[in-house]
């Protein structure tokens, strides 16, 4: 498919509504990653805007796949993929009030409560770093949750280094593996 036909196809998908947003987002991401030589460079901005719009309308799983796909170009990913600010703000507010964050975290992660309990009980902070990176939560969110959910009178500040040690694509894959394993266990 030549560049003009491909762009026309993407615009056609955009007009079909939310049902095809995932397909649109993934196709536009692929186009941006491997920009064809016969495609005008002026169209990149429009494609990035289209991807950003579509990415806001897809679920967390699709955004995670997009993040993995775009990991080779972190600047592009930062421009087009939304952060989960609402999730971040809600979790921090609940943790600061001393509320139980397990249920909202389980919902955001699409994981069972038992798995979230295991993640939060990891004293090293690695599992928490994985879920924060996998959900595209900021380092500030991770640090706040690590300190507030540490379960000790004195927080273990060594946990704070874990966030930087986890690569986002690895975190997204690990989070997806946890989801698959949980689904398999639930089906068994």
Report the C-alpha radius of gyration, rounded.
19 Å
Helix content: 55-70%
Task: Compute the average pLDDT.
Answer: 83
Distance between the termini: 44 Å
Low-confidence stretches: none
Topology, number of strands: 0
Shape: elongated
Number of helices: 12
Instruction: Work out the strand percent.
Output: under 5%
Q: What string, H for helix and E for strand, traces the elements in order?
A: HHHHHHHHHHHH
Summarize the biggest pleated sheet: none
Q: What class would the helix/strand composition place it in?
A: mainly alpha
In short:
69% of the residues lie in helices and 0% in strands. It contains twelve helices and no strands.
Features:
188 residues, mainly alpha
Topology:
Layout (H helix, E strand, L loop, with lengths): L2 H13 L5 H13 L9 H14 L3 H10 L4 H7 L4 H12 L5 H8 L3 H9 L4 H9 L4 H10 L13 H4 L2 H20 L1
Helix pairs in contact: 2-3, 2-4, 4-12, 6-10, 7-8, 9-10, 9-12
Description of the molecule:
The protein has helices at residues 3-15, 21-33, 43-56, 60-69, 74-80, 85-96, 102-109, 113-121, 126-134, 139-148, 162-165, 168-187. The chain is mainly alpha-helical. The longest helix is centred in the last third of the chain and has 20 residues, at 168-187. The relative contact order is 0.10. α4 (60-69) crosses α12 and α6 (85-96) runs parallel beside α10. The radius of gyration is 19 Å and the shape is elongated. Helices cover 69% and strands 0% of the residues. It contains 12 helices and no strands.
């Amino acid at each position: 498919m030549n560049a003009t036909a491909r762009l026309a196809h993407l615009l056609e998908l955009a007009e079909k509504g939310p049902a095809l947003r995932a397909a649109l987002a993934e196709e536009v991401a692929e186009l941006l990653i491997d920009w064809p030589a016969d495609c005008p460079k002026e169209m990149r901005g429009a494609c990035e805007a289209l991807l950003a719009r579509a990415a806001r309308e897809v679920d967390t799983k699709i955004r995670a796949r997009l993040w993995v796909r775009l990991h080779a170009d972190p600047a592009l990913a930062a421009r087009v993929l939304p952060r989960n600010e609402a999730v971040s703000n809600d979790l921090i507010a609940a943790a600061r009030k001393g509320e139980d964050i397990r249920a909202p975290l389980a919902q955001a992660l699409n994981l069972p409560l038992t798995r979230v309990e295991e993640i939060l009980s990891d004293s090293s902070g690695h599992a928490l770093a994985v879920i924060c990176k996998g959900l595209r939560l900021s380092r500030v969110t991770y640090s706040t949750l690590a300190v507030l959910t540490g379960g000790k009178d004195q927080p273990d500040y060594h946990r704070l280094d874990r966030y930087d040690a986890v690569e986002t694509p690895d975190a997204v894959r690990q989070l997806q593996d946890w989801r698959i394993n949980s689904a398999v266990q639930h089906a068994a």
